[in-house]
Design a protein that fits this description.
heterodimer; A: alpha/beta; Pyruvate Kinase, Chain: A, domain 1; five-stranded mixed β-sheet; 7 helices; B: alpha+beta; three-stranded antiparallel β-sheet; flat
């Protein structure tokens, strides 16, 4: 909702420089004075909006990063099995891979969504395309423009709140229900490095064949039947991890983006204020000169 | 040995989700409300074929339908 209200204001800000260039400084003092005043007001409103978004994002960030820490434990524990078993993606002749992209529905948060899309495009350019499952509207819009043929499933409705495990489970189920058998499944998400840098990273989720073929797997004595359960559950775990970490990245990135926007708005307000004062003074001086010349002219007669 | 839930066509995740929901519902009133928020999901999804998206559908109901179909 906030993002929608911010849009017209942003557009107005974009239109500002052209109008300023059209009216050279100091001509028709009154008109520009009012114009500058209007612009000042709208900039002030925008600053307020971006500042509020920043505050909201910061409070959400604390919750999101807590969820991230917790989900990381889940993800890492479930990956531990595969690490111990030394599971690798089998070198199959015909690879059929699936990539799950974890973005979200909301924009106005810097370049984290386009970072994911760019990573996918780079991967496709290097290794040829594979099938895609996209979570979140933003990446869906970007990838449906460049790779509409690869898309298999798209999800919407994530990112409003901290992602829940129920979300991850539902997604994992839908992925498992896809008709094609994939040799490997990868999850692409934004890895939270620190508050200002994020990196699109892959998590591997293995297929049943890959698990059974892993060298140390016999140590675990898993029954044949529960193997598919393990696979599904570990996919849900990894997805939950990826979603939670992606969510934290988004919030932190939005906070930074809004912080910058507020700063820029402040700078622009300062500039406009100076311009406003200057032209106001010019108008006053002009009027004074007119009055004085009028007065001296009439006094001489 | 095949478990009853497997015969009913449920996936392991679905089985877990149902078990979790049951536990959440058996909590005390005040704790239940907080816990049930964790089980909510507003996911919607669309299937794509040849570059075209189908209609958006609710994930939860669609999942249930697909699993009912799988049951034997």
């Amino acid at each position: 909702m906030l993002s929608r209200t911010a849009r017209p204001a942003l557009r107005a800000a974009a239109a500002v420089p052209t109008r300023a260039a059209a009216a050279p400084a100091g001509v028709a003092g009154y008109a520009t004075l009012r114009e500058i005043n209007d612009r000042l007001k709208s900039m002030n409103n925008m600053k307020k909006i971006t500042n509020t978004m920043k505050v909201v994002a910061s409070t959400k960030l604390t919750r999101a990063s807590r969820a991230m820490e917790e989900s990381r434990k889940y993800g890492e524990t479930s990956q531990e099995v595969f690490e111990a078993a030394e599971t690798k993606v089998p070198e199959a002749e015909e690879k059929k891979s699936l990539i799950i992209v974890c973005s979200s529905d909301r924009g106005l948060c810097g370049g984290i969504h386009s970072g994911l899309s760019r990573r996918i495009r780079k991967l496709f350019a290097e290794e040829g395309s594979s099938d895609l499952v996209v979570i979140g509207e933003k990446c869906r819009a970007q990838l449906s423009r460049s790779n509409p043929q690869s898309l298999q499933l798209t999800f919407a409705g994530v990112g409003r709140n901290v992602p829940t495990f129920a979300d991850a489970q539902a997604i994992a189920d839908q992925v498992a229900l896809l008709p094609t058998e994939y040799t490997d499944v990868k999850i692409l998400y934004n890895k939270f490095i620190n508050a200002t840098s994020y990196e699109p990273t892959f998590i591997e989720a293995f297929s049943e064949d890959a698990i059974t073929q892993s060298p140390n797997f016999s140590a675990f004595e898993v029954e044949e039947e529960s193997l598919s359960n393990l696979r599904e559950y570990s996919l849900a775990n990894s997805l939950y991890w990826a979603l939670a970490e992606g969510h934290a990245c988004e919030m932190s990135s939005r906070r930074n983006a809004m912080d910058n926007a507020t700063k820029n708005a402040g700078e622009m307000i300062n500039k406009l204020q100076i311009q406003y004062n200057r032209s106001r003074q010019a108008v006053i001086t002009n009027e004074l000169v007119e009055i004085i010349t009028g007065a001296t002219a009439s006094a001489d007669m | 040995m095949s478990a009853a839930w497997k015969a009913a066509g449920l996936t392991y995740n679905r089985y877990l989700a149902i078990a979790a929901r049951t536990i959440r519902r058996s909590l005390k009133e005040d704790k239940r409300i907080i816990a049930e928020r964790r089980g909510e999901s507003e996911l919607k999804f669309a299937k794509w074929q040849n570059g075209k998206a189908s209609e958006m559908k609710n994930v939860a109901s669609e999942n249930a339908a697909a699993m009912a179909q799988q049951s034997s």
